[in-house]
Amino acid sequence: MSDEHTHEPAPADDGSGHGSDHGFDNGHGDGRLYGVLAEYDTPGELLAAARKVRDAGYTEFDCYSPFPVHGIDEAMGIRRTILPVLIFIGGLTGTAGGLLLQWWCNAYNWPWNISGKPTWSIPANVPIAFELTILAAVFTSFFGMWILNKLPQVWHPFFRNERFNHVTDDAFLLGIEARDRRFDTVATPKLLADAGAIRVESVHLDPDPAHRQMPNWITAFIVASTAFALIPFAIAAKARTSRSTEPHLHIFPDMDFQPKYKSDQPMELFADGRENRGELAGTIARGSLNADDLFYRGLEQTDAGAQWTTGFPKQLEISEHLMKRGRNRFEIYCTPCHGYDGRGTGAVPQRVAQTGGVWLARNLVDSSNPVAMTMPNGQLFNTISNGYNTMMGYAAQIPHADRWAIVLYVRALQRSQNAALDDIPPDHRSGMQMPETP
Amino acid sequence: MSVLSKSLHPEEKYKAGSLGRDLSRIGFVIAAVFLGISIVLGATHGDNYKRLLYAYVVGWSYIFSICVGVFWLVLLHHLVRGRWATAVRRIAEAMSMAFPVVFLAGLGFIIPLLAGYKDLYYWAHPDAHNAELNQTLLHKLGWLSPWSFAVRYVVYGVLYTAMATYFMKKSRQQDDSGDPKLSEQLRVASGPAMVVYSLITCFAAFDILMSMAPKWYSTIYGVSFWGSACVGGFAALALVVLGIQRTGRLTHSINPEHYHDIGKWMFAFTFFWAYTAFSQFMLQWYGNMPEETVWYKYRLFGEWQWVSIAILVGFWAFPFVFLMSRWTKRIVPSLVFFAVWQLVFHWLDLYWNVMPSYDWTPTFHDGVKIVAGPLTGAIALHHVGFSPLDITVWIGLVGVLLIGIGRNLHGNLIPVKDPTLGLSLAHENL
User: Fold this and answer.
1) CA distance B427 to B327
2) Is the Cβ–Cβ distance between A91 and A135 less than 8 Å?
3) A67 to chain B, minimum CA–CA distance in Å?
4) pLDDT tens, B183-232?
5) Do residues A49 and A36 touch, judged by C-beta distance below 8 A?
6) How far apart are CA B346 and CA B340, in angstroms?
7) Which of B2, B325, B327, B366 to mutate to test the interface with A (most CBs of A within 10 A)?
8) Residue A36, SS3 per DSSP
9) Quick one: closest CA in A to B427, which residue?
């Protein structure tokens, strides 16, 4: 390649062997003239040249550069792309689709009552609608760009030019196609050269029509890979419409069938089919001896045998702190049925009443039917541990010391709910008044 | 012949001349007149200056947030080696150099606080220490006490001022020497500065605005405030740049390409603010825990719901849809319309953040009347209670901001020897 400007007068459509200085002489020679390609040194010169070519009235030309050149659209006289409008429409479609999806799933097709929350509520739907807006807008933007730019373009006549290889690296090229009505084999290259081109070359089509299109192997690859990608969908479609007695296909059988315990499944390792090994007869696990009858069971040894204790185990220090702990545990575990005041009208009985039924929990502080009032401490403890009538035991949820704390609090509750004015120290009486109902 | 870079137009008027002095004088007159009116109105409001101080916090947050927003552009421009903004960067630097004046103006509510004024922030009220009423507040009262609050205020002010001064000083040094190493120094400094800036902006928002409702908390609050601040900052930048061009200065250097980019940022932060504000709302709304939803309870029901709707539509939906287009940002009158619009709604956003805490509910405890604080009691008792004070204080403090900006509009209005100036002057949007 010479450094001087090569104005070669391009031949007419005679297919003669002109222009052999293009880099890609593949032995086929040259066919019809496709266009001229000019190279410029800087993006700025490319911009200026594009403006001149546009002003000269050319329309079938394009600029090629390694990176987007600001202002090239205006210089080439390209109308602004319609892509933003398409993206906006895509985004709106995403918003609408997201809202419709959630309405259809949650409010129409399968409404499901979750804690009485509404099945259709705009704030809850915003994140999904937002994400789908973004997704649809980005897809429109990405694929719209490809489609509007007619990409992917795997073959172009300019590929035959050696300098075009540099267009992704350091070449700023401007190509005018011969089909432009203003194209002239002499004037057009001169225009490009006058605009400051460092090189102007003619580009000819390959005379062999087979080389003027996408290579067949690429076409074959695209068709084959597309067909291959459809196979899973075909299998799924077949499975949805047919019956089979064959077992499932296991691609990774050692992952599908692992020798481990799964919940609600028998275990083959042990003869009894259980995975958990129970206690062996005659043994006690470490820390589970629980030999202290008073602390662990509320029983006291007397001359008449074991009896419910009326006191508290010596491990516990009866204090304000223990009382507060008891109140805290009581309000977590007991109030749903027994209520905050212990009168047996907690949230569960209220809910039963709302649905038309009648069920009350035990009134723990009732002095007229004093079942719970007269129970010894040990029996109250035992009731919490093991249950009473329909009440289930809470041994699994509440540690022993906390059960005793609850017993202490229940005793205080019984005392306070049956208190008379005389029970209150005189200096506190004046401040007593009904609490304000919120 | 490359058009990727341009040199400064030979007839460009880029010297500030008397511009800054004039602006400061205008600002001073506005501040003096409107703050004077405000004090009279505040004294006659009959609530021990409470409304005045509330309006003052709103107005102060407004001018503070504009500095925060504009200073962010300065930091970001260096951090990412920006190009387009070099032509407007000196103006942004001058605007962010209003920090010292703004922080001096903030003493207007810091000093009463230190002097024992108890009706502005509930945590400064003696009843905040009532353990029965404010169990969840007690552990915060170490952080939220007038003196520690004031110390942090001073720390924020010093840090903002120091950073803004550094970036301004080095930039002006480059005007004389043209040394490209100064750009490098600023770039290195912008990273740590951005970290410090982010932290103090978040904490300032927690302290000054979020503690208006001291029991409530939201970790994203500072980010949301910053988003709103940047909307205001870029809107104010557009107006100041236009104002300077109207005086015949910089008419060749700054063109619709720069306005377009300022508009893009305004648009971006309009959405960013909405994103963070909704993130804050939705998690608390969905979680439905009383200690969190209380903040929204008094904003989404009663009189305040109309303000909330106005913000949703005015601060987000309308500008978002219209700023999306290219032309609304490139046609300068259109951009100015949205800049003014967003500056008004940015104020309304701050108003909406502060004022629902204005009504404090009294309650009886052990037979004694005590103050239960903001965001308590029946919703119907909480009024928007709009007062002319809110506007006069706002305008007065904008006057203070103009003083702060005017002080620094001297010398070159454009970084004449910045190595990237040529690129900025030739800037074109794709």
Assistant:
1) 17
2) no
3) 12
4) 999 999 999 999 999 999 999 999 999 999 999 999 999 999 999 999 99
5) no
6) 10
7) B2
8) strand
9) A70
CA distances from A71 to A34, A121, A169 (A): 27, 47, 20
Query: Both A204 and A81 in a single domain?
Result: yes
Q: Looking up tokens 């403006």, which residue turns up?
A: A51
Of A150 and A326, which is predicted with more confidence? A326
Which run of H or E residues covers position B299?
helix B290-300
Longest dimension (CA), chain A: 129
Listed in sequence order, the residues at least 6 apart from B423 whose beta carbon sits closer than 8 Å to its beta carbon are B4, B5, B83, B84, B86
Q: List Cβ neighbours of A174 (8 Å cut-off, separation of 6 or more).
A: A37, A38, A40, A46, A49, A50, A53, A61, A62, A63, A64, A192, A197
Alpha-carbon dihedral sign for residues B183, B187, B189, B195: positive
- Taking the C-alpha atoms of residue B291 and residue B135, their distance in angstroms, rounded to an integer, is 12
Interchain contact, A71 vs B428, CB within 8 Å: yes
Determine whether the interchain pair A68/B2 forms a contact, defined as Cβ–Cβ distance below 8 Å.
no
Please tell me if residue B365 touches chain A, with a CB cutoff of 8 Å: no
My answer on whether A22 and A116 are in the same domain is yes
A196 and A326 co-located in one domain = no
What digits encode the pLDDT tens for the residues A134-164? 999 999 999 999 999 888 887 788 888 888 9
Residues in chain B: 430
Residues A54 and A168 in one domain: yes
Reduced DSSP (H G I as helix, E B as strand, rest coil) percent helix, strand, coil of chain B, to 5: 70, 0, 25
Tokens 């109309």 -> residue:
B306
A175, A321: one domain:
no
Asked if residue A103 and residue A201 are part of one domain, the reply reads yes
Question: What range does the domain containing A127 cover?
Answer: 1-215
Please provide the DSSP assignment of B234-263 as one string: HHHHHHHHHHHHHTTSSTTT--HHHHHHHH
Burial (Cβ within 10 Å: 0-12, 13-18, ≥19) of residue B21: middle
- pLDDT score at A8: 43
Task: Identify the CATH number of the domain in which residue A345 sits.
Answer: 1.10.760.10
Model ipTM value:
0.86
Number of independent structural domains in chain A = 2
Domain presence at residue A17: yes
**Is B7 touching A (CB cutoff 8 A)?**
no
What residue ranges do the domains of chain B occupy? 20-425
The pair phi, psi for residue B285, each rounded to 5°, is -65, -45
Return d(Cα A13, Cα B181) in angstroms, integer: 60
Helix (H) or strand (E) holding A174: strand A172-177
Answer yes or no: is A21 within a domain: yes
B376, B38 Cβ separation under 8 angstroms: no
CA distance B213 to A207: 81
Residue A426 to residue A84: CA distance in whole angstroms: 81
> Tens digits of per-residue pLDDT, B329-379?
999 999 999 999 999 999 999 999 999 999 998 888 777 889 999 999 889
- Per the CB < 8 A criterion, the answer to whether A44 and B3 are in contact is yes
Helical segments of A149-215, H only: 187-194
Please choose, from the candidates A188, A172, A163, the residue with its C-alpha nearest in 3D space to the C-alpha of residue A44.
Answer: A172
